[in-house]
C-alpha cells in the first residue's frame, strides 16, 4: 500500500474520535481491559538475508507461509521533534495469510536501544526481538481472522514515562521499533506469528504534559545538540532503465522507437520522475528555502540516456511491438506532451541548481573497463556531460563520476583517469583502508598515469544510508556492496516501514558523533531510484529540517570536490560484474565493428548527419546493454532479459548497416571483348551517408585484376567501378567481388560474376609466333634472291606490265 503522510495532530484527533471502537495502547490505557497479554517467545538472532517479518522461529503453515502478516501503513509523527506529541502512533494492518483461522490476535509495540553505528541502521532491523526490551502491553486487535481476512488497527505508546509503559526514549537518536503480533491458530497454541520493524528518528524530545513535577526529567522538551552540525551533500538522481529500442542508427528526421510506453507514465503528473522533480521544485522554492540552503546542498544527477530519450520523445515517437527486432511493427507513443513539460521544468531547475551527469545509461564501468574500447570508455564517462549540457543549455559539474555500483577497481580507475575524471564518488565501505577524510587519493597501478600526473580522488558517500534509501519505493533494492550481515528481505516490509528506515538514516549522522570535529556526510540514493508518491518530498523535507534546525549545514558538491586529498592512498573494490564473458566479448566485437564502419563513413557538408551522429546510437545501445539499472532489485531477472534482447537487436542492426553497402551482381555471363578488357561493376550504398570502400576480388589464377583503390559511394546511391582485368584463358571463369571498409571488413554480400573472354590464350600466342616466323622466312628468301639478281620462284608466271 502506498505510504501516506499523517500529521500527529490529525491522527490524535482521529484516535480520540474512534477510541471506543479501536484498541490502543499507552495513549488510551482505558481500552486495554480486554487485551490479551501473551508473552513473546525468546528467539535467536535473526541471520542476515532472512525476512524480518517472519522470524525463523515463528510457526509456519505446511506450505511455508506465515499464519499472519503485519504491514505498517503510517507512523505519526514520522520524526519526533520537541513540538511533537509525547507519543508515537502506528497504523497497521494484520492479515491472515495462512491456511486456517487465527484467534485472539494481539499486538504490542517494542523499542530497542538507540543506534550508535552506521552499520546499525541495517543490522538493528534483524535483531532478536528480545533486544527490543522496552515493551508495551498487548492489545487485542481482532478476536479472530479467517483465511485472507485482514484488520486495520492503530497502536500508540508514550515516548517516555515514569508511570506507565513507554518506549523509554530519553535522548535524541534513531531508535529501532517493532510491532509484535501474537495469535492462536486453529488446532494450535498461542505463539508470536509475525513482526514489523522500522526506525524512528528522534531529533528532539517533547515534554510530557502528564508529568506533574515541573523539574522532572521528562517535564520539559529536550532539544538536540546543534553545536557541531554535520556538513551535508545530497545527490538527487533522475534516471530510468534504458527505453530506446536497439539496432537503429542515427537519423535527422526519423522518429525514435521505444521498447515500451512506461516512460510516458513516469513523466506524467504523479509518475515517478514527475514526483522526483516536483519534490525538488517544491522544497527549493524561496518560501520554503529562503536562504537557499537546501538548493546549495543538492546536486541533481542526470542520466544522459534518460535525457536523450525524453528529448526525442518531445518530437513524437513510436513504440515497438518486438524489442528484439529492429524492423518490428510499431504503434504511436502517448507521452510527447508529458515529455515536453517535464523537460521544460528540468531546464528551469537545472539553470539554478548543481547538475552532474551520471555514466551513460548507468552502465557498468567495470565491464566497460574490461572491454577496453576507448570509444566505449569515452561514451560512458566523458561524453555524458556534453550530452547533458547540450540538451539543457547549462554547464554541469565536470571531471566528476558517480559510480553506479558504489566502487571502482584498479582497471576502472585507470579508465576513469584516461577519460578525464578527477574525482569518483564511491561507497565508504568500498574503500580500504577506511578513512574519514572527505577526499582520498586512489592508488594507481598505471605507472604511465602516475608519471603524467593524472590522479584520481575518491569521495565517499555513506553506504548504510544509501542502502536505506534504496529500499524506498515500488521496487526496493539492496546495493551490491552491502555486507551480508546488513542484508535482509525488503519485499516483506511495507513502503511506510522502508521510508521510516530511510528517514532514520538521514537523521543518524546529524544526531550521532556530535563530538567529532569536521563532520561531513554525502547522501547518494541508487541512481535508478523507484521512490514515488510522497516519499521524495518526505526525504527532502527531512534534509531541509536538519538544515533549518542547525543539525546540518549545506556543503555544495563543488565545495566537496575542491577539498584536497589527505591521508594515505586508498584502494576501492567493486562488485563483480554480473555479465558473462560471452556478453563482454560480444560487446567488444560489435563496438569494434562500429568503429570500423565510422572510419569508412564520409562527412557530407550538405548533410546534418555526420558519421559520429549516425553511429552514436549503435554504440549507445552497447552501453545500455551493460546498464546496472534494476540489477540490485527484484527486477533483476527482467533487467537481464532486457540486456540480452538489446544486444541481440543491436547485432541485427549493425549487420543490417553492413549489409546496406554491396556490389550488385550482373545477370548472365560477362563477356570480355579482349583479354585486357576492363570489368564494369556497380556498387550500391543504401546508407544515408557517403562511404569509402575498397573492392575485394577473389579471382582464379587465369585472371589478373588490378587494384582500383578507394571508391566513394554517395549516400543512397550507386557508382560504376571500372576494374582493369587481364584474362589468358577462353574458359568461363567465376570471380567473386565484394566491397569492404578501409580496414578490410566486408560489407554486404559477395557477388559472383561469370566472365568469358574472346582471347585464345596460349594457343593464340603460339600461332601468332609461328605465323611471324613464317613471314620472316619468306621475306628473307625474297631478299636473298633479289640481292643475287635471281628471280624469286614465287614470282614465276608473273610478268611486269
In brief, what are we looking at here?
This protein has 801 residues and is α/β, with parallel strands linked by helices.
Describe this structure in words.
- The strands form 9 sheets. Strands 3, 4, 5, 7 and 8 form a 5-stranded antiparallel beta sheet that branches.
- A hairpin with a 5-residue loop joins β31 and β32.
- 48% of the residues are buried.
- The longest helix is centred in the last third of the chain and has 26 residues, at 762-787.
- The chain has 801 residues and is an alpha/beta fold.
List keywords for this structure.
five-stranded antiparallel sheet, alpha/beta, five-stranded parallel sheet, single chain, 23% strand, 32 strands
- Supply the number of helical segments: 19
Strands, total number: 32
Low-confidence stretches: 1-56
Rg, alpha carbons: 38 Å
Helical proportion? 25-40%
Q: Decide which structural class fits the backbone.
A: alpha/beta
The amount of beta strand, in percent, is 15-25%
Tell me the major beta sheet.
Answer: 5 strands, antiparallel
Quote the average pLDDT.
86
Terminal CA distance reads: 129 Å
From the spread of the alpha carbons, the general shape counts as elongated
Q: Would you spell out the secondary-structure blueprint of this structure?
A:
Elements: H1 8-18, E1 68-76, E2 87-96, E3 102-111, H2 120-123, E4 134-135, E5 139-145, E6 150-158, E7 173-185, E8 191-202, E9 230-238, E10 256-258, H3 262-267, H4 272-283, H5 293-297, E11 298-302, H6 304-313, E12 317-320, E13 330-332, H7 336-350, E14 354-357, H8 365-371, H9 374-392, E15 400-402, H10 410-418, E16 423-427, E17 431-432, E18 439-441, H11 447-452, E19 457-461, H12 463-470, H13 495-511, E20 520-523, H14 535-549, E21 552-554, H15 557-561, E22 571-572, H16 581-600, H17 611-625, H18 636-658, E23 661-664, E24 669-672, E25 679-685, E26 691-698, E27 703-705, E28 710-713, E29 717-723, E30 725-727, E31 733-740, E32 746-757, H19 762-787
Parallel strand pairs: 9-11, 9-20, 9-21, 10-12, 11-14, 15-16, 16-19, 24-32
Antiparallel strand pairs: 1-2, 2-6, 3-4, 3-5, 3-7, 7-8, 12-13, 17-22, 18-19, 23-25, 25-29, 26-28, 26-31, 27-30, 31-32
Amino acid at each position: 500500500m502506498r505510504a501516506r503522510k499523517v500529521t500527529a495532530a490529525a491522527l490524535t484527533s482521529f484516535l480520540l474520535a474512534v477510541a471506543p471502537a479501536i484498541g490502543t495502547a499507552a495513549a488510551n490505557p482505558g481500552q486495554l481491559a480486554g487485551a490479551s497479554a501473551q508473552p513473546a517467545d525468546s528467539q535467536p538472532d535473526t541471520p542476515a538475508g532472512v525476512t524480518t517479518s517472519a522470524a525463523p522461529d515463528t510457526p509456519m503453515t505446511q506450505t511455508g507461509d506465515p499464519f499472519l502478516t503485519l504491514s505498517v501503513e503510517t507512523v505519526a509523527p514520522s520524526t519526533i521533534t520537541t513540538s511533537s506529541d509525547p507519543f508515537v502512533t502506528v497504523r497497521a494492518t494484520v492479515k491472515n495469510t495462512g491456511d486456517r483461522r487465527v484467534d485472539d490476535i494481539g499486538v504490542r509495540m517494542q523499542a530497542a536501544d538507540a543506534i550508535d553505528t552506521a552499520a546499525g541502521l541495517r543490522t538493528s532491523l534483524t535483531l532478536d526481538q528480545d533486544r527490543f526490551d522496552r515493551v508495551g502491553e498487548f492489545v487485542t486487535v481482532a478476536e479472530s481472522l479467517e483465511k485472507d481476512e485482514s484488520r486495520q488497527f492503530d497502536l500508540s505508546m508514550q515516548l517516555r514515562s515514569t508511570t506507565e509503559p513507554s518506549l523509554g526514549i530519553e535522548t535524541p537518536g534513531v531508535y529501532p521499533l517493532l510491532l509484535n503480533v501474537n495469535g492462536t491458530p486453529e488446532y494450535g497454541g498461542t505463539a508470536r506469528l509475525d513482526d514489523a520493524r522500522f526506525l524512528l528518528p528522534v531529533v528532539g524530545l517533547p515534554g510530557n504534559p502528564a508529568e506533574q513535577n515541573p523539574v522532572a526529567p521528562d517535564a520539559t522538551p529536550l532539544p538536540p545538540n546543534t553545536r557541531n552540525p554535520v556538513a551535508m551533500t545530497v545527490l538527487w538522481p533522475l534516471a530510468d532503465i534504458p527505453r530506446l529500442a536497439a539496432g537503429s542508427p542515427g537519423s535527422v528526421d526519423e522518429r525514435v522507437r521505444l521498447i515500451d510506453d512506461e516512460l510516458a507514465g513516469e513523466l506524467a503528473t504523479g509518475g515517478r520522475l514527475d514526483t522526483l522533480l516536483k519534490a525538488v521544485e517544491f522544497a527549493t522554492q524561496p518560501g520554503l528555502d529562503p536562504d537557499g540552503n537546501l538548493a546549495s546542498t543538492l546536486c541533481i544527477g542526470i542520466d544522459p540516456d534518460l535525457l536523450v530519450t525524453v528529448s526525442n520523445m518531445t518530437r513524437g515517437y513510436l513504440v515497438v511491438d518486438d524489442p528484439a527486432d529492429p524492423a518490428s511493427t510499431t504503434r504511436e507513443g502517448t507521452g510527447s506532451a508529458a515529455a515536453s513539460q517535464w523537460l521544460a521544468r528540468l531546464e528551469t531547475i537545472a539553470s539554478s541548481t548543481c547538475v552532474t551527469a551520471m555514466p551513460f545509461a548507468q552502465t557498468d564501468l567495470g565491464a566497460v573497463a574490461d572491454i577496453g574500447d576507448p570509444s566505449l570508455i569515452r561514451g560512458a564517462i566523458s561524453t555524458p556531460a556534453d550530452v547533458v549540457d547540450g540538451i539543457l543549455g547549462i554547464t554541469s559539474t565536470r571531471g566528476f563520476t558517480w559510480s553506479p555500483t558504489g566502487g571502482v577497481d584498479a582497471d576502472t580507475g585507470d579508465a576513469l583517469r584516461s577519460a578525464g575524471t578527477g574525482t569518483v564518488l564511491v561507497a565508504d565501505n568500498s574503500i580500504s583502508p577506511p578513512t574519514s577524510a572527505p577526499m582520498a587519493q586512489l592508488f594507481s597501478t598505471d605507472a604511465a598515469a602516475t608519471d603524467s600526473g593524472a590522479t584520481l580522488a575518491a569521495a565517499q558517500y555513506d553506504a548504510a544510508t544509501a542502502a536505506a534509501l534504496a529500499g524506498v519505493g515500488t521496487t526496493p533494492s539492496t546495493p551490491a556492496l552491502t555486507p551480508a550481515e546488513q542484508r535482509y528481505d525488503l519485499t516483506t516490509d511495507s513502503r511506510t516501514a522502508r521510508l521510516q528506515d530511510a528517514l532514520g538514516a538521514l537523521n543518524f549522522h546529524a544526531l550521532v558523533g556530535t563530538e567529532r570535529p569536521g563532520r561531513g556526510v554525502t547522501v547518494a540514493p541508487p541512481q535508478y531510484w523507484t521512490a514515488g508518491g510522497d516519499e521524495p518530498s518526505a526525504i527532502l523535507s527531512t534534509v531541509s529540517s536538519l538544515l533549518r534546525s542547525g543539525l546540518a549545514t549545506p556543503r555544495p558538491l563543488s565545495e566537496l570536490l575542491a577539498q584536497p586529498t589527505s591521508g594515505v592512498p586508498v584502494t576501492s573494490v567493486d562488485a563483480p560484474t554480473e555479465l558473462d564473458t560471452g556478453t563482454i566479448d560480444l560487446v567488444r566485437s560489435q563496438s569494434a565493428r562500429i568503429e570500423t564502419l565510422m572510419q569508412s563513413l564520409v562527412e557530407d557538408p550538405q548533410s546534418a548527419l555526420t558519421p559520429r551522429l549516425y553511429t552514436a546510437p549503435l554504440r549507445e545501445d552497447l552501453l545500455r546493454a551493460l546498464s546496472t539499472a534494476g540489477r540490485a532489485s527484484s527486477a533483476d531477472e527482467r533487467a537481464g532479459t532486457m540486456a540480452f534482447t538489446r544486444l541481440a537487436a543491436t547485432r541485427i542492426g549493425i549487420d543490417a548497416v553492413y549489409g546496406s553497402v554491396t556490389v550488385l551482381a550482373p545477370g548472365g555471363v560477362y563477356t570480355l571483348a579482349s583479354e585486357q578488357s576492363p570489368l564494369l561493376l556497380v556498387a550500391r550504398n543504401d546508407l544515408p551517408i557517403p562511404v569509402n570502400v575498397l573492392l575485394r576480388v577473389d579471382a582464379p589464377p587465369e585472371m589478373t585484376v588490378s587494384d582500383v583503390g578507394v571508391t566513394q559511394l554517395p549516400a543512397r546511391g550507386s557508382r560504376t567501378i571500372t576494374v582493369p582485368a587481364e584474362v589468358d584463358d577462353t574458359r568461363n571463369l567465376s570471380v567473386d567481388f565484394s566491397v569492404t571498409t578501409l580496414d578490410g571488413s566486408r560489407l554486404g554480400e559477395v557477388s559472383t560474376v561469370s566472365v568469358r573472354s574472346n582471347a585464345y590464350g596460349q594457343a593464340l600466342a603460339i600461332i601468332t609466333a609461328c605465323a611471324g616466323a613464317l613471314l620472316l622466312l619468306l621475306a628473307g628468301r625474297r631478299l636473298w634472291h633479289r640481292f643475287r639478281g635471281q628471280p624469286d620462284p614465287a614470282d614465276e608466271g608473273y610478268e611486269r606490265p
